[in-house]
From TrEMBL:
Domain Endonuclease/exonuclease/phosphatase span(s) in chain numbering: 1-248
GO molecular function: endonuclease activity
Keyword Nuclease: yes
InterPro entries: CCR4/nocturin_mRNA_transcr, Endo/exonu/phosph_ase_sf, Endo/exonuclease/phosphatase
SUPFAM superfamilies: DNase I-like (SSF56219)
Name by which UniProt lists this protein: Endonuclease/exonuclease/phosphatase family protein
Keyword field: Endonuclease, Hydrolase, Nuclease
């Protein structure tokens, strides 16, 4: 699952975090994914989810200082299903100086990539999971971030099974999307290659209110390299009382290692 949970913004009333955090947790509990790549979570939001999701642990660092400051691109993983073999020595900043807190190009904010190597407990197979959140302003930054992520995946995962989740702030007809899906390694959009045709709407960013804020944009994705088979793919509309749990819809895929 890829899920932008929306940072705790007091101006979001009536959809501020305290009013929706239980619903965010329940969506994850209901679909029970092995991995959840989250975006925008602040440390107290992640701490809450960690407490609620008793079968999960998580990895990640704050983008502001490499510790607890700022938003995270955290990866939650179900310890019943997988175990962490290795995590990145440090968060990768999507910048010209990726090993330290920084931003580059025309980015408005620091942006990061988190990754871990996991082993499937039932089979012993291993898979790399990467999670990110691209800048919402910088067009150059989004393109350069795509190139940098491909470079990191080549260096870290090589030809081994790999999945990339995230809020990319780009549409499928954009240059960053084309870079990711035609580069080396080639990453496949799970939406496009799912054995069972996609289920749900074709947008992921909608605003909180059902039928009240959607501009029809699909900007959140799950990508997988050629070592991964995607059996199912969905965008989830788990709303209650006229509101979604977040201003983004979660993306869900069922995958297997070839």
């Amino acid at each position: 699952m890829s899920y932008n949970i929306r940072y705790d913004n007091p101006d979001d009333a009536p959809n501020h975090w305290d009013n929706r955090k239980g619903r965010v947790a329940n969506v994850i509990k209901f679909y029970d994914p092995a991995f959840v790549g989250t975006q925008e979570g602040l440390i107290h939001q992640l701490t809450y989810l960690d407490q609620e999701l008793s079968n999960y642990e998580w990895i990640g660092q704050g983008r502001k200082d490499g510790k607890h400051g700022g938003e995270f691109s955290a990866i939650f993983y179900d310890t019943r299903k997988v175990k962490l073999v290795k995590e990145s020595d440090s968060t990768v900043w999507l910048s010209e100086t990726p090993q330290k807190p920084s931003k580059s190009w025309d980015a408005a904010l620091p942006r990061i990539l988190t990754w871990g190597l996991f082993e499937v407990k039932s089979t012993g197979e291993q898979v790399y999971v990467f999670n990110t959140h691209f800048d919402h302003v910088g067009e150059v930054a989004r393109l350069e971030s795509s190139k940098l992520i491909l470079k990191v995946i080549r260096e870290v995962a090589g030809k081994k099974p790999a999945v990339l989740t995230g809020d990319f702030n780009v549409m499928p007809d954009s240059e960053p999307y084309a870079t990711l899906t035609s580069g080396t390694p080639e990453l496949n959009d799970a939406y496009e290659i799912s054995v069972l045709s996609h289920v749900g709407p074709s947008f992921t960013f909608e605003g909180f209110k059902v039928n009240g804020g959607s501009d029809g944009r699909r900007i959140d994705y799950i990508f997988a390299n050629n070592e991964i088979r995607v059996n199912k793919h969905a965008i989830l509309t788990s709303f209650q009382e006229g509101f979604y749990p977040s201003d983004h819809l979660p993306v869900y895929a069922e995958i297997e290692i070839k």
